[in-house]
Amino acid sequence: MTISNNPAQIVVEHLIKRFGTFVAVDDVSFSVGRGEIMGFLGPNGAGKSTIIRVLCGLLSPTSGRAVVAGIDVSRDPEGVRQRIGYMSQKFSLYRNLTVEENLRFFGGIYRVPEIELSKRIRFAVEMAGLSGREHARVSTLAGGWQQRLALGCAVLHRPPILFLDEPTSGVEPRSRRRFWDLIHSLAADGVTVLVSTHYMDEAEYCDRAALINQGRLIAIGSPQQLKHTALPGQLVLIECDALGAALAALQQAPGVHECSVFGDSLHVVVDDAEKSFEELPRYLAAKNLQLNRITRINPSLEDVFVQLVGADIANRNNAA
Amino acid sequence: MKVRRLKAIALKEVLQIWRDPRSLMIALLMPFMQMFLLGYGVTLDLKHIPICTFDREASQNSQALLKRFAASRYFAIAGNVQNYPALVGAIDRADCKIAIVVPPDFSERLNDTGSTSVQAIVDATDDNSANIAYGYALAVVSSFSSDAQLLLSARQGNTLQQSQPMVVQSRVWFNEDLESRNFVIPGLVAVVLALVGAQLTSLTISREWERGTMELLISTPARPSEVMFGKLIPYLVLGWIDASFCLIIAAFWFEVPFRGTIFTLFVTTTLFLAVVLGIGYLLSVLIRNQLGASQIALLVTMLPTTLLSGYVFPIDQMPNIIQKITYLIYSRYYVTIVKAIFLKGADLHAMATPILFLLVYASAVIFLAARAFRKTLE
């Protein structure tokens, strides 16, 4: 995506971050272009927050390089801080201050010109859908509103780059949807957004997504690319009675790459979907297992992630 | 340092203090309580020492002597007993600290020989107050004795005044009434300000860490010095308000004479506040949790200030090594200064040395605090 007229706003090269002996970020490299929405996907503790904190200058890298807005974060963290907006994973506005007081505080910290501040605060309040609640204490707001206000505070100084660390966690689905609309409108204005989430479905809203597991970047690409290239075969859905027994049996079955539980059904990666329609029911019947339904489905990013994590773990075990 | 950021941080801090009952209580209620509790609690004067009398003669003379005790403001008659067992009982029950026994031949011997004696029985479980009580009793008896001598010589037709070859004409300066209150209360102001000041700022950074707001604050371009001064300014104003409370209570309620100027008091108090607020802030930066920081702040202000500042316990009566240690105690300088301002009316020039020490201390603490605050999560 980094083409010549779209210089990278975030460049990470061989980033390693250790806490004692624990490797939180393990040789991660990627770059994000201007106006791009880059999603960080992965389970809790995968190292998403650590990478974002390094990029904001809150943690220093053990080795490797992080360049934000053309500035090396280790060399000039203050220069970076002036050009970024940050939403931390834990809500970090002042709860006993009102909506407007919080916005005024950050306006002052970023030295937004006084004449413009009121206008920008009005914009942020409208964007967050908080009109009429300017004088409400933040502690009285529901989760989704708090998160939108936090975004409002983060963009008040019009930073070219935004780091959003799990901005939608714990927020109800309708508010999440609305939050992503905001992110898209910011990106449309040229803001570069790096956003982490552990909701796999949210990756569909990103231009590109990076899958992160145990500190390693295991795949990166647009949601379409990831879905089409990451799976080594085709995906079928199986409904059956004894889910656990069928799972164990199918993992040994011929022509099966990967099998995992999704809700009350199984997702199975096979070489050829058509062939599996005949082979798998027969295979399960031989083991006295009843198969109710088998059908080909389009892979979701969650399928991709499960597949890639499995492959990553296998790779590492082979290497060891 | 950018004024805009200072203002934003200071205003935010004011709103937070205003909406945080804990901070407000510490800032506004604690100084009052401490001034009154300690102001009344710590007094080194012994007044109204309970005394028992056992008059075995019951003559005009013996009653005249005992009336002197009753009239003295240092004694209060706790009871008149009629026998020794009752007297021993009174001392055992701590009804009285001292008992005066007038012998049955008190007047007889006085008239015959011109010399007689009374017995004082002192409860010396607390040797210091026993000594003081005994001294007061001695003074009462000796004044009675010299009057009796005058009377005797007058009766013998000798109208000449009894003359003493040499007398000391003493003038007590600064604390003319030798009231220990005048000595203690100005020092108490230092104790209260040290305690309250460090408590308040010990919460300010640790609160941001605990509530998670620090992560966002350090992701902004706000500089450590801007955060520090922005946060300290509101507390300095609170400190001035507290200092005014304390000084008004000292001067008007406890009626300690105030002979200095408000200006010298303002300058020196501001220096002292810079030290204690800086100490609290430094602890808050280092400890990162409110309870821990406020406990340590209590420890490093309360103990040295009450024990080693000279506020009650005179420094020149301490062992040599302890005296040297007191030079490290910042409150020592302010205690000296406040006492000098209140009682002597000293000006800045006269107190140059302690002021210089305070200035050095304040700069060191503020410098360390500014260095200790790092904009990192590590």
Distance between the termini of chain B: 25 Å
State the CATH class of the largest domain in chain A.
Alpha Beta
CATH topology of the largest domain in chain A: Rossmann fold
The secondary structure category of chain B is: mainly alpha
Distance between the termini of chain A: 34 Å
Global shape of chain A: elongated
Number of domains of chain B: 2
Task: Give the uncertain stretches of chain A in residue-range form.
Answer: none
Q: Could you give a short account of the major beta sheet of chain A?
A: 6 strands, mixed
Strands of the biggest beta sheet of chain B: in what spatial order? 2-1-3-4
Which structural category fits the helices and strands of chain A? alpha/beta
Number of helices of chain A: 10
The total strand number of chain B stands at: 4
- Overall outline of chain B: elongated
Order of helices and strands of chain A: EEEHEEHEHHHEHEEEHEHEEHEH
* Second rung of CATH, namely the architecture of the largest domain in chain A: 3-Layer(aba) Sandwich
Low-confidence stretches of chain B: none
Query: What do the pLDDT scores of chain A average to?
Result: 91
Q: Helix fraction of chain A?
A: 25-40%
* Number of domains as seen in the coordinates of chain A: 2
Written description of the protein model:
With 320 residues, chain A is an alpha/beta fold. Helices cover 37% and strands 28% of the residues of chain A. Chain A folds into two domains: 8-223, P-loop containing nucleotide triphosphate hydrolases (Rossmann fold, 3-Layer(aba) Sandwich), CATH 3.40.50; 232-298, Alpha-Beta Plaits (2-Layer Sandwich), CATH 3.30.70.980. In chain A, strands 6-7-8-3-9-10 form a six-stranded mixed beta sheet, with helices on both faces. In chain A, strands 2-1-4-5 form a four-stranded antiparallel beta sheet, with helices on one face. Chain A is elongated. With 378 residues, chain B is mainly α. Chain B folds into two domains: 3-43 and 179-372, no CATH class; 49-155, abc type-2 transporter like domain (abc type-2 transporter like fold), CATH 3.40.1710. In chain B, strands 2-1-3-4 form a four-stranded mixed beta sheet, with helices on both faces. In chain B, α7 runs antiparallel to α10 (224-253) and α7 (180-202) packs across α14. The longest helix of chain B is centred in the middle third of the chain and has 30 residues, at 224-253. The radius of gyration of chain B is 29 Å and the shape is elongated. Chain B starts with a helix and ends in a 6-residue tail after the last helix. The model of chain B has no long low-confidence stretch (mean pLDDT 89).
